[in-house]
């Protein structure tokens, strides 16, 4: 993806983010919770005061192992310090073909909205002193203008060939936070696995299901051919209207599944429609991430 496209995404995200602090101030002075600087909260980080030992996990560098504490047991332990430096926030943005759907040319597709929300959240998090990265192994959490550019470039890359996305569960840092944006319409198993791993590592966060209004209304009738955005799935019917009830029931069941998984992991969950203002979803994201502190 070209550099101008990445710069454009970043510019749009910053423009959206710039409108948020006044809105947060009006909404119970929520802006104060957005500006998360170094407050010495009791979280794992790189401050100077000892907080706790925790079992070592894959990915922990050897230099962080406390060999004296580890020598008293059969396991290796990491010595964690008080949370005074910036905390890590990891983003996962679904880039599968299903996210390319839009029921109206006047609306952004689901992918464009999810990427914009992720970038806007990153801008505000970094303004508050947080480190932000992407779930997986490609872009570890960092802060600074260069990291914002890297985020924009990575999020602007082409979509995968998969019909539906699989939630990323690699490289979730212990005691960090995460934000996942997807339509969550594919196989639920990867999301279940990701949230289970997150819970094991003390990772808390928010799930945002991004849907087009058409996917909620199902305004189809008569002869209709349904085809996935990637072309891998197809179904033809002469009576599309007869499917509406079953479809809406399945959609509600999926939403209940996601909400149940989120509650079990201590995460927040919300559905956002591309026909609604992006700022509305961004405000919810910040409220949700504050709740899971």
End-to-end gap? 35 Å
Strand order of the largest sheet: 4-3-5-6-9
CATH topology of the largest domain: Rossmann fold
Helix amount, in percent?
Answer: 25-40%
What's the total number of strands? Answer: 9
> In the CATH hierarchy, what is the architecture of the largest domain at level 2?
3-Layer(aba) Sandwich
State Rg: 21 Å
Report the total helices. Answer: 10
User: CATH class of the largest domain, please?
Assistant: Alpha Beta
Tell me, rounded to a whole number, the average pLDDT. 76
Query: What overall geometry do the principal axes of the alpha carbons give?
Result: globular
Number of domains: 2
Low-confidence stretches: 20-51, 82-86
SSE class: alpha/beta
Assembly annotation: single chain
- Our estimate of the beta-strand percent is 15-25%
Produce the secondary structure layout.
Layout: H1 3-18, H2 20-26, H3 31-34, E1 41-55, H4 67-70, E2 77-83, E3 88-93, H5 110-127, E4 131-134, H6 145-155, E5 177-182, H7 189-200, E6 204-211, H8 213-217, E7 224-227, E8 234-237, H9 244-265, E9 268-273, H10 278-291
Parallel strand pairs: 3-4, 3-5, 5-6, 6-9
Antiparallel strand pairs: 1-2, 7-8
Protein name: DUF58 domain-containing protein
Organism: Actibacterium mucosum KCTC 23349
Domain DUF58: 52-254
